[in-house]
Amino acid sequence: MSEAGNTVVVMDLNADLGEGYGIWRLGDDLALLDLVTSANVACGFHAGDPLIIRRTCAAAVDRGVAIGAQVSYRDLAGFGRREMEVDPEELCSDVLYQLAALDGMARSMGGRVSYVKPHGALYNRACRDEEQAEAVVAAVTAFTPAASALPILTLPGSALARVAGRHGVPTVAECFADRAYTPEGTLVPRRRPGAVLHDPDEVAARAVRMAVEGVVTTIEGGEVRVGARSVCVHGDTPGSVRIARAVRQALLDAGVVVGPFA
After folding, report:
1. Which domains, from first to last, does the chain contain?
2. Lesser CB count within 10 Å: N end or C end of the chain?
């Protein structure tokens, strides 16, 4: 079994799911749910509708996959990837609304929301903007008291991690197998060439290195530390099922235990 020092390496594998809308489908949720250990379920603000949310929660419960609320700016047209200026009180209310809606649907299917992960532009903004991070954390503590607050998935060392720590809210460090990194340990903006990786073997090799060594090669060729407990593959990336399957198998082959953090 792979070890880092004397500690067995355990890595969660998460993916963004439930991101269709109406007649439109994005990705193969059922196939991905057979591979991942945590499902970041869209809550309706960037993607997802009540029927898709219900079906995704039911399928996750059937497979024993942890359900996370993938909260977003209110941006269906831009898939939640457009940065927006939102008043902190409004953002807190939007995040709380999404959390409550998804948890209600999950509970009706026999599950529950067990963590929170911001999506897209909100994720990136909360990683650097403490005011927006405060709004996200305020929603989480309004939903559940800090003593029993849902953990938040975020980049290690982010503003969101710092703010959550000040309020006693747990965070889980996350890394991205299919995204390029800057030397500062942040994600390369999607508009830049090479920001999203598509080769399953390359993505799988990066995932193993992040899990076992805690480092990743940056877009400039250097290395940056990314100590994490969960690795993400994007459900909307073309070939996402092949990528997720390659990542999971590579982690297992390296002796990493693949299991949920929540």
Report:
1. 3-258 (3.20.20.370)
2. N
